[in-house]
Write a structure and sequence with these properties.
Shape: globular
Strand content: 15-25%
Structural class: alpha/beta
Helix content: 40-55%
CATH superfamily: P-loop containing nucleotide triphosphate hydrolases
Radius of gyration: 20 Å
CATH architecture: 3-Layer(aba) Sandwich
Largest sheet: 7 strands, mixed
Length: 309
Amino acid sequence: MNEIPPGANPQLLDRYIREQALPPEFLATADRHYRPLAKWLAAQRRADAALFVGINGAQGTGKSTLSEVLKIYLEDVHGLATAVLSIDDFYLTRAERKQLATNVHPLLLTRGVPGTHDIALARTTIARLKSLGSGQHIKLPHFDKAADDRAPENEWKLFTGPTRVIILEGWCVAAKAEPAARLSHPVNALEAEEDPDARWRTYVNRQLREVYSPLFLELDLLIFLQAPSFEAIYRWRSEQEAKLRDRLGTTAIETRVMDEAALARFIQHYERITRNNLETLPVQADAVLILDQDHRVKETRYRKSQWIK
C-alpha cells in the first residue's frame, strides 16, 4: 500500500487526493516529483519578498493538481503561505468578450486565448498579494465556467497575508509571441477557414507580446509540464470527454460535454500557441516535469542541474 509522502500532513494530502479522485499511484508521483519541487521552491525564496512562480502546461497536463499539491507542501512543510491563482480566473466577462467579438473578431467570444483575459486585474491582484501585511486580506477573483462569466465578488475566496509564494498557473503563462511572418500560414482548419486573413491570430499574438509579456516578465521562476506532443494532448482531452459522455449519458448535452467534432474545433483555438510552447518553454523554464504518453511524470529537470530520474 502507498503511504502519504513524508513531511506532508496526511489528512490534507489524503483529503485532496480523495476529493479529486486521483489514482493510487499519484502518491508516488507526489513523493518523487512534487515534494522535491516544493523544497526547491522554498529554497529559492527571498526573505524580503514573495516568490512569484508561473506554471505552464497544456490542457490536461495537471497544472491545477500540481499547484494545489505544491501549496499543501509549501504551507504545511515549509510554513510559506501560498496563494494559487489560475489565469482562467481572470477571463474577461462574457459581455466584454461579446464586445471583442463584435469589434475585433468573432473567435474572441471563445475564452482562452491571449486577449480574452483581464490582465490589468491580474496584475493588480498580484501586486496586492505581494504587499499584503500580516493579517490583511484580499479576495481572489473567480471565473464561473458553467455560467461562462466572472463570479460575483461575494463568491471569491479570501486570502490572508503575509504572502510568501504566489503561483500563477495557466496554459499560456510565460508563452512567447511568434514572429509576424509565421502568422501568415494557418496551422489548422480553424485558422484557414475562420481566420483566413489572419486577423484573429494577429490580434492574439499582439496581445501576447504587448499586454501579457509585462506580466510574465515579473515571474521569478517558471515550471513547465511538458507533454510528449500536441497529438498526445489532444488524445488525453478526447479520452476525458469520452469518459464524461459515457458517465453522463443523455445529460451530456445539457452539461456541454463535447463530441469529437466540437472538441476538434475547440482544441484548434489553442494549437498554435501550444505547439510554440512545446518548442520554446523546455529551454526557458527553470524546472521541467516531463510527462510520458500515459500522462505520468517520468522525470524532472532543474535548470543548471542534472536530470533527476
